[in-house]
# Entry
Amino acid sequence: MAIKNVEIQDDTGTIYYPHTNASVVKCANGQSVEMQFAENVKQIGNINDQSLDATLKGKSLTEMTKVLFTNANNGKTAVANALVAKGVSALTTDTFTVLASKINAITFDASKLLTGNTVMAIAGTMLNRVTMASDASHAGLGDEQAVIGRFEAPLVWTKGNHSIFLNVPKGYYDETVYIYKSDPNYISANIKAGVSIFGVPGKTSVIDTASASAVDNEILVGNTAGVNGSMIVGTMPNNGAINRIPTTSSQSIPAGYTTGGIVSAVSVPTDKVLEGTVIAGAKGTLVLRGTAIASDIISGKTAYNTDAETKITGTMTVESLGGKRYASGSIDVPQSSTTIKVSGLAFKPTAVFIRNNSGSCQTQWNSLINNDAYMTDSIYPTRRISTVNIDNTTYPYVAYGEFFLPIGINSWGTVQWMAFS
# Structure
């Protein structure tokens, strides 16, 4: 120890300088400090504890200090990198205290860890649906998977296009677990025939009745039918068997259903039925063959001949038979008149005869004799009357349906006339 490093002064001002050395200073074990220090140096320089890590055995304190520093630094770096890998911001320069605070800040969601497992002293709460018993409500879903877990979805959404969406209960699942939603109406009887929904085929008796058009009176009473989504109750009466015997009168058939019946046979004498006529399915054999032609039938009349299908219109007239049509009558002639006019005939005259009641005056006209008229009266003998114009009318005048001829002097009064075609 250096002298005069420690100063002591008494009450008179006298100064003392106490001093010592390692050889006189004693340790707790009774050894001098000098001896103890020499022993410590000897021990540090020869550390050879077999329980030490291989990286420390046989090394000096200085070397051990370097190894320990390196190991501590590497460990801190590994912790920092692990935190970064887990999404926690950390630096290799952070102190162990800082790193420890960041580790303590890490939290863990127990619902994401299976029950029976613990992470960072946090017990998992996620249900293991694989090992849990199936819902008791899955009865009727079939026995092929009776021992495998089944769980009913709490909610279902059917707004998707041709899809059903299930809300899955929380927990862990694997391919052995089934999620379902039960509906008592999801059965074959509620699915149209020919359609399969999620593997369930429609019942053959369930059909689309949208195109059905039957009404109640077209369905037998006591029976029903589906029509356009509605059940129609039949009102058609059941008339059973209906039998009829043909008569000369019409017979009504009641509306409704009939199981059948008999219409009695009719005996048809075909030899008395005109050929080409069918009565009750029997064809007539009676043949009518006429020989008349149009000229053999009175004009304006008709008849059927030969094939009984062609109608013949008659052309026969009195003239065609060589005869003459005839018309006659009387007319009152004024005393001053010298002519007679008759109309309304159904033919054109070729000969006309006129005479008064006494027969003293006569007129004859014949188209075959130059269309002239010959007249005899009480004054003049028979004479020929050529065409004469009287009051702007030319006579003798004869046309279809009428004639206009002169009469003799003193022929007034009632005059008789006859006309021939």
User: Anything to note?
Assistant: Residues 109-207 form one domain. The CA atoms of residues 220 and 236 lie 5 Å apart.
